[in-house]
Specification:
The chain is an alpha+beta fold. It is 52% helix and 19% strand. The strands form 4 sheets. Strands 12, 13, 14, 17, 18, 19, 20, 21, 22 and 23 form a 10-stranded mixed beta sheet that branches. Strands 3, 4, 5, 6, 7, 8 and 9 form a 7-stranded mixed beta sheet that branches. A 4-stranded antiparallel beta sheet has the order 2-10-1-11, covered by helices on one side. It is elongated and about 100 Å long. The two termini are 25 Å apart.
Length: 764
């Protein structure tokens, strides 16, 4: 074995470029997948632990004047484990001459069973302390700390309260106050906690307006719960929201699933291409050692020793590449992805954790690489050493009869013959080109699709200048106050839609007359006027519900037990929100909670109204959306870069291996009089043929893969239209062509340096 070990070291040094290419392919595949996997696995573990520590409730009942008797009766329901009431109030405050809002929950020792904020600094939450505990993000951005005082304002009441500490709560991991906010704005909005005694002292006697429930795992149904709560509370009841329907909670699940699906689908293509390339590379590396294998067998080395020697090639390279990839993925890729998610989500601890899927991937790559070496070695070992020592194995002649009467030029005959004799090599070259196009189109295409969709939303669909929230004011009063102003009122609610047994959740947007929200027919692209008795459904939701124009669908809002049925009269190309659009005359009670403002004059009037708050400009919305887009783009940077690197490595490796395999063939051509230009002409013709076939297969396949990729990674709340711009598509095509030409130039240098005497020297 001592001599085999020396040979092993010498082979690594002589063919280090090919071994490094295998190592790089394993490294990239493992680092991309394991890096992303450690984020979503860690996020799930962190969030699960976070929910347990803060005793996250299973359901939330909203209402007015909820009595203690109501809560006692709710507790008596057989399927309710625990029920606790609390007071929820929105206060205004002003810090550093900037207005902001604090959403405050009351607590007692009892409510901590279902609402137990995680203390981050300061004093523990106690129901006999007069002060406030504010959320950590809000405190950090306003430079607030324990002992500072802030002024709370509500309808003429002003109270200076002392900050006793900072907290975090799993209920508000993604803290947005309306659907108009696309990302949390911790400067304008925060949440806080005050004990029940102190908040009643500030406001006077106030009744509960929310109840949190703890439900068993095998829960009857939401419909049953709603009916029972309505029966108990009567007119006090407003709505029931399950934890899985809260935006702060669903957003976390959506983002975890998005990373998961994005990594899975991209990695499947990525890893398959890598494994195929690794297998082929190792096979061809060992095939080029045919003479050495025959020599070793002639010298008396046992088969098992030769198997072990060449198996170690694949095992060592794949193991090193996988381990380095795992470390790189954990320290670099995972941190990049995690920093993106930290911009929108708030967790007390961000874990990174490898799942069993990452271990399976590493074992798979190492196994494939090792088996490729062993299987190829076996093909040589089973032949007689007297043949293999001469660089030959027992195989049928390829035959040349089909070329005798051909009118093709010699270089094209040589190219076709090469393809026929080496189908695996040709297949891998074409596969590398197809894979490169698919991966790069997917990476850049998601970028273009996301950008195009948001541009469509803010340039065509949303035509207001400001958007605000409306609280506790009737439509008649608001329409009278804003009769001479450029505004449009709307009622936005989350709703469940159903059609023939299929159910989906989305948004119900009831619109007053106006043009601040513009809708366009999905087919004709003509503008839809919602005033003309239209019930419009977004094309994405229509597709998921299998709905067409003329069908009747049912919907039920989160705040009502009643099911409504409407006939779909239009399917519209609206990216967000996903749901249905109805004119106010089509609903029984129109209670606006949103106002779209068209100009500065209307904006100034809206600021004066106490019932209107959270006014945000469309520019701010766009900035927030850009922030969210940038987070997705950062992930795309990683995937695009990985796709480019993998494409370069695979194409380079295939080109160099082909050159090594044809070393004697090129030397023979030079001996019989072919000049360098003629030889390179043949090389370029074969490369061109592979490129042509690769593009014919890869271009349509890449477009279909992009459509699938967009459908899988997009979130439920918005439709992404799959698209890649012509410029970016040409960049992909020219990059693949450029990689191929670059490889051929490297091959050209190698061919120029061929020593004809050494190349044609007989082994004997």
């Amino acid at each position: 074995m001592k001599y085999l070990n020396k040979k092993f070291g010498r082979d690594i040094l002589q063919q280090w470029k090919q071994f490094v290419s295998v190592l790089v392919m394993a490294l990239i595949s493992v680092s991309i997948y394991c890096g992303m996997s450690s984020v979503w696995t860690g996020m799930e573990e962190s969030y699960t632990d976070y929910k347990e520590k803060t005793n996250l409730a299973d359901a939330y009942i909203n209402g007015i004047n909820i009595s203690g008797e109501n809560i006692s009766n709710i507790k008596k329901l057989s399927y309710v484990n625990q029920a606790e009431g609390s007071i929820f109030v929105k206060f205004n405050t002003r810090i550093d001459n900037e207005d902001s809002e604090l959403y405050i929950n009351s607590f007692t020792n009892s409510t901590k069973k279902l609402m137990n904020p995680l203390l981050r600094s300061g004093q523990p939450l106690k129901d006999d302390k007069e002060g406030i505990w504010i959320d950590e993000d809000y405190a950090k951005i306003h430079n607030l700390k324990e002992g500072d005082k802030i002024v709370l304002e509500l309808k003429g009441i002003k109270k200076k309260v002392k900050i006793l500490g900072t907290v975090l709560d799993a209920e508000n991991i993604y803290f947005v106050t309306s659907y108009a906010e696309t990302v949390p704005d911790h400067k304008r909005h925060g949440y806080a906690y005050i004990n029940e005694k102190y908040i009643k002292k500030i406001l006077g006697m106030v009744s509960y307006n929310q109840v949190r429930l703890d439900l068993p795992e095998k829960f009857v149904s939401k419909a049953k719960l709603e009916k029972d709560i309505k029966r108990i509370m009567g007119d006090s009841f407003s709505s029931v929201v399950m934890k899985e329907d809260k935006i702060s909670i669903t957003q976390v699940d959506d983002e975890i699933n998005q990373i998961h699906k994005m990594a899975m689908l991209f990695s499947i293509v990525f890893i398959l291409l890598s494994i195929l390339s690794i297998y082929t590379t190792m096979s061809r590396l060992i095939s080029n050692q045919m003479v050495q294998i025959g020599t070793l067998k002639s010298l008396g080395f046992y088969d098992r020793q030769i198997y072990f020697h060449y198996g170690a090639y694949g095992f060592l390279v794949a193991t090193i590449g996988s381990l380095v990839g795992m470390i790189f993925g954990y320290t670099v890729v995972a941190n990049l992805v995690m920093n993106i998610k930290k911009a929108t989500l708030t967790l007390p601890v961000w874990k990174k954790s490898f799942g069993i899927d990452s271990m399976i991937l590493i074992v798979l790559i190492v196994t494939v690489c090792t088996l490729a070496a062993i299987i190829t070695t076996r093909k040589v070992i089973k032949n007689n050493p007297s043949f293999t020592i001469k660089g030959m194995i027992d195989q049928k002649s390829s035959g040349s009869g089909i070329y005798k009467k051909s009118r093709l030029s010699y270089d094209w005959l040589w190219t076709i013959r090469s393809v026929r004799i080496h189908p695996i090599r040709t297949f891998m070259s074409i596969t590398a080109i197809v894979g490169s196009v698919v991966l790069m189109v997917a990476g850049i295409g998601v970028w273009d699709s996301l950008y195009s969709s948001y541009q469509d939303v803010y340039n065509n669909e949303f035509c207001y200048k400001y958007i605000g929230q409306v609280y506790g004011e009737s439509y008649n009063n608001l329409s009278h106050k804003f009769n001479s102003f450029d505004v449009q009122l709307a009622q936005s609610e989350s709703a469940d839609f159903s059609f023939h047994g299929t159910e989906k959740t989305g948004s119900l947007l009831v619109l007053d007359s106006g043009d601040k929200i513009r809708l366009f027919d999905a087919n004709s692209k003509k503008k839809i006027r919602i005033e003309k008795d239209e019930v419009a459904i977004t094309s994405q939701l229509a597709e998921k519900l299998y709905v067409k124009v003329g069908d009747k669908i049912a919907y039920k809002t989160k705040s009502s037990l009643k099911e409504h049925r409407v006939t779909v009269t239009a399917i519209v190309d609206a990216k967000m929100p996903q749901g249905i659009f109805i004119h106010k005359d089509k609903v029984k009670n129109f209670e606006p909670n949103t106002i779209y403002i068209g100009d500065n004059e209307a904006y100034e009037q809206a600021k004066k109204e106490e019932s209107i708050s959270n006014i945000i400009s469309i520019k701010k919305q766009q900035d927030n959306m850009k922030e969210m887009m940038d987070s997705v783009h950062s992930i795309m940077y990683i995937l695009i870069l990985a796709a480019f690197v993998l494409s370069v490595v695979i194409l380079y490796n295939l080109g160099i291996l082909s050159c090594l395999e044809r070393y004697r063939e090129y030397a023979t051509m030079k001996v019989i009089g072919f000049n360098h230009g003629e030889i390179m002409g043949m090389v370029f013709k074969e490369s061109f043929l592979n490129l042509l076939i690769g593009f014919v297969i890869g271009i349509p396949l890449s477009r279909q893969f992009l459509k699938l990729y967009i459908r899988v990674v997009s979130m439920e709340s918005m439709e992404w239209t799959p698209i890649i711009t012509k410029d970016h598509f040409l960049v992909v095509i020219f990059c693949v062509i450029g990689f191929s030409v670059l490889v051929n130039l490297v091959v050209s240098k190698r061919i120029r340096r061929i020593d004809m005497v050494e190349a044609l020297k007989s082994v004997e």
